[in-house]
From TrEMBL:
PANTHER family: PLECKSTRIN HOMOLOGY-LIKE DOMAIN FAMILY A MEMBER 3, PLECKSTRIN HOMOLOGY-LIKE DOMAIN, PQ-RICH PROTEIN. It is found in: Cytoplasm; Membrane. GO terms for molecular function: phosphatidylinositol phosphate binding. Residues 6-100 form the PH domain. This is PH domain-containing protein. The lineage of its organism: Eukaryota, Metazoa, Chordata, Craniata, Vertebrata. It comes from Culter alburnus (Topmouth culter). Its main location: cytoplasm. Keywords: Cytoplasm, Membrane. It is a peripheral membrane protein.
Amino acid sequence: MNQCKVMKDGYLEKRSNGLLQLWKKKRCVLSEDGLRLYDCKGESSKEMRFEQMTTLDCVEYKRGLVYFTIVMNGGKEIDFRCQQEGTAWNAEIALALVRFKNRVAVQTGRNRHLSHLGSCGEGDVEL
């Protein structure tokens, strides 16, 4: 994901998995391939690739904040929130996810078409 175009860079809060489910501020970088989350010191990061995401759900607006959930393959849900100003992170992530899935669908269609052309090629001539 490092060599992909950066589409948005800024801060989100992620709900922790712990018992208290505290909100932790993360520096986030959105690219064409996914979302990378950095801890507040910038020392470690976690990558959430679009190929592992199913959808972005549960958008709610409360007290100047946008709350949303990213659903991963297998059903794991990861909750985020951000300030409700400008183009919100949830919209940017959702659009990038749709673009990624469309790109994959087009490539899959091309590959099927090319493999179909290959299977109907010169090797199939009957004598």
